Amino acid sequence: MDSFLGCFKSSKTIYDFTVKDFRRNDVSLSVFRGKVLMVVNVASYCGLTEINYKELNELYAKHKNQGFEILAFPCNQFLEQEPGSSEEIHKFACTKFKAEFPIFRKIEVNGKNADPLYKYLKNQKGRIFRAIDWNFAKFLVNKQGKVVERYAHTIAPHKIEKDIIKLLHS
Asked: Where in the sequence is the active site (predicted)?
C-alpha cells in the first residue's frame, strides 16, 4: 500500500508551478522561493469572506516584511460564491477588503479541471484524493516550498499565526 500511495507523492515543490495572475500573465511560483506561504481559495460572496479577508490582511501586514506571503486563488465551485471575472474579483478584494497580497486568476480546485497547483497541494500531507470542502481552505508552505499543513475552512487565519511564526523562524 505504501508504494501505491508513494506514486501520488511528489518530490516537486510549490516552486515548480506556474500560475496565472488576474490579468492572465504567467507567474512562476519560484519568485516566492525562501518565503513562508499561505495558499488559500477565496470567494467574494461567502459568509466567511469578511472575517477571512480581515484576518488575512492582518497576518499579511504583520508578517510580510519577515518573508510571509499569501497567495489567493478565487474559486466559484462552492455555491457560485465567486461569480465575477478574475479582474472583477481582484478589484473587489482590493477595494472592499484592501487586500495587498497577490490574488491570482479564478481557478477550479476540485474535479477534472482542478488547477495543477491544487492537485499537488491536495496530494501532500497524506490526504490523497481529498477534495477541498469549501471556500477559504488554507495550505501552509515552508521556505523550502513543501506543504507542511492543510487547514479546513473552519480554521480562522489568526489561529494559524503561531504556525506561521514557527516557520518564519526556522
From this structure: 46
